[in-house]
Specification:
CATH architecture of the largest domain: Up-down Bundle
Number of helices: 6
Number of strands: 0
Oligomer: single chain
Largest sheet: none
Shape: rod-shaped
Order of helices and strands: HHHHHH
CATH topology of the largest domain: Methane Monooxygenase Hydroxylase, Chain G, domain 1
Helix content: over 70%
Distance between the termini: 139 Å
């Protein structure tokens, strides 16, 4: 090589080597990024699978919940169990949020038509759909349990109070059916009869109200619970009507 060609060849060689090293470094960097993306994608799916399985099981329970009980204590137990399950699901919120963030990150790094990114997007949609459905159904379940609890509390308490009042009235009626001889006793019997007369219409209204509560409770509770409520009403109504008829004869 001539004196002028030597430096130029050396310069070209150096430039080619620089480009080669730059390309090599870029390929290495891209390979590292690809390895990282593959690793993150694998971790994403590994963590997604058990969470999806847990949420799918939870949503199935909420889609087919146990029948609502009719007895107050049993409803309270159902409500406590439902809330405990809700607390367990709340513990999954950090994992849910982290997976959503990781999935969005993977999608943002991928090409628009990347099948892997589309698969991540599809699984994210499924995850969020399950989470939203669980929240909605859990709220609806708790609301229903609270409503039936209020209804059952009123029905059983009012039924007990009505039967107690009617039994007391029945005892008084029996005493009035055996008139006294002593004037003071007769006066007491007359006053008692007048008091019962004043209460009769109110007791009839109370009986109708309790019967309506019972019908509402039968409608609201589960199929397996309905016979017990109906039995209670069927046993109470004849006694109530018989006692009220007795009271009516005093008028």
């Amino acid at each position: 090589l001539s004196a002028t060609e030597g430096p130029r060849v050396t310069q070209c060689y150096a430039e080619a080597e620089r480009r080669y090293l730059a390309i090599k470094e870029e390929v290495k960097s891209r390979a590292a990024l690809l390895d990282e993306a593959v690793s993150q994608s694998a971790q994403f799916h590994d963590k997604m699978d058990p969470l999806l399985e847990t949420l799918e099981a939870a949503v199935q329970r909420l889609r087919q919940p146990p029948p609502v009980a009719a007895e107050v204590e049993k409803i309270r137990e159902q409500l406590a169990e439902h809330r405990a399950q809700g607390l367990e699901l709340d513990k999954l919120l950090p994992s849910f949020s982290a997976l959503c963030a990781r999935g969005e990150e993977l999608i943002s790094r991928a090409a628009h038509d990347d099948p892997a990114a589309q698969a991540v997007h599809s699984r994210l949609l499924r995850l969020r759909s399950l989470w939203d459905e669980i929240r909605q159904r859990a709220e609806e379940r708790e609301s229903k349990l609270n409503d039936v609890l209020d209804l059952a509390s009123k029905f059983w308490a009012d039924m007990a109070a009505l039967l107690s009042t009617l039994r007391d009235s029945q005892d008084i009626v029996k005493e009035l059916e055996d008139p006294g001889v002593d004037p003071s006793l007769i006066k007491q019997q007359i006053e008692a009869a007048e008091a019962i007369k004043a209460e009769t219409d109110g007791l009839r209204e109370e009986l109708e109200f309790v019967r309506t509560l019972g019908a509402d409770l039968i409608f609201a509770c589960g199929e397996t619970e309905k016979p017990e409520v109906k039995k209670t009403i069927d046993e109470a109504l004849p006694f109530s009507r018989h006692t009220l008829s007795k009271l009516q004869t005093l008028q």
